[in-house]
Write a structure and sequence with these properties.
The protein has 480 residues and is mostly helical. It has 18 helices and no strands. The longest helix is centred in the N-terminal third of the chain and has 61 residues. It starts with a helix and ends in a 10-residue tail after the last helix.
Amino acid sequence: MGAEPSLRRRAVEGSVYLTVRRLVGMGLSIAGMLLITRIVGPENYGLFASAVGLYTYLSLVTQLGVRVYLIRSPRDESLRLFHLGFWLLLGWSLLLTAAALLGLVIAGHFWIRTEGFLPVAVLVCLGLPFAAAAVAPQALLEQGLNYKRLATVEVTAQVSSYIVGIPLAQLGYGVWALVASFWASLLIGVVGAFWASCYRPRWYWNRTEQRDMVRFSLAQATAEWLYMAKNLAPALVLLPLGGKEAAGYFALANRLMEMLNFVQFSIRRVALPVYARVQHEPAKLLRALYLSSLGQILALGGACLGFVLLAWYLLPPLFGAQWNIPMVILTLAVLASEQLLTAVFGSHAQGLFAVRQPQVVTRAAALFAPNLYLSTALAVWLAPASWAPVAYALAYYWAHLPNNYFLHRGVQRFIGQPIYGVSLVWAIALSIALFAPVAYYLPLAALGVFILPVSRRALREILHELRVAQTPQAGGMLKP
């Protein structure tokens, strides 16, 4: 009985720390982005962002899904599983880095012939072993829900990147200023993770435990690898077909999307341990998935709508004439609309992982990946060059729809009938409102759904859960 209120308090505290971290990070990112991207321009930014997309995906493959395995593992003062995970990932990352560099040389020769891409991508991908080394200490912090220290490390790394990158951009180093800022953030993040967790790797190897770790981790990671193959698409599709400028506009919109997604990111990050605790109680799990999606939709939709309404007028003079900011904001609106749906169905995927049904998510992702590449390639190829970023974002939205349906069916089968309530209605209404600046603000009328009685009840329910986090005896989603 006492464990559930404690879990709730720690989960909400974790969300608060991560939300504050994202708020601080958003402020830093806006300031840093205004300075760096204004100087380097859309072409250099597109080149760098495409390389980082490759790195992001390869970093995910490097981790083998071991982070979740370590977070779910029983607490063990010997930390033997963390030591095993550290050495496993370090060795695997070195092999993967070598293979990635060879693949880049081949791809750069036969497909991605954009000038300057290959050296930038190679230097960025050399950071893969460093990212792999940080998985064990980061997982140790997350297992203990110690998000305060984790947030401190992340903010420090972000500040370091701008301290290094902004002066270099002003000195005229262009894309290399961005590469230097990437390395500053990576190194500070790795060192900070070890410092914050007090983790020191020791040699440990057990073949039986290693096989169990890889077997469990790959079962989950395969789905994530297939889905996150979307991070490769800007480099493999948009950059060669649309050009560096189109890649730059999409990258800036996607970066703004990540910044505005701060509360949704925080809720998702702390949700997995909560879902794992109630995995054997379908009613509680379904309600937790529903309330989590409502919180994410409100946070993301509110942040994006406020930003779009202000940015349409404020950002053009700040970024300068070389940036077509209305195009960036339109692309952002499409990406945000997709993310509002993902708030619902992404929670479904996490719930399926919690009940150990990763094969459902894997099958959905296997459908999504080829659909994404075919849709985006066709859209960018057919669209006028100036509209390539928006065409790419629309195809990105379309590619998610079958994936969402498969996740819905999976939850029906393995957990129970999903609770949607007002979640889809809110997501659609906020998506429509995001296009207000280009339609004389008439789309804002869609926000009228929030004054409906059913919406007011849902809002009261969310507020109740927040109060429960502070006064556990009042009841809440983790109680019958």
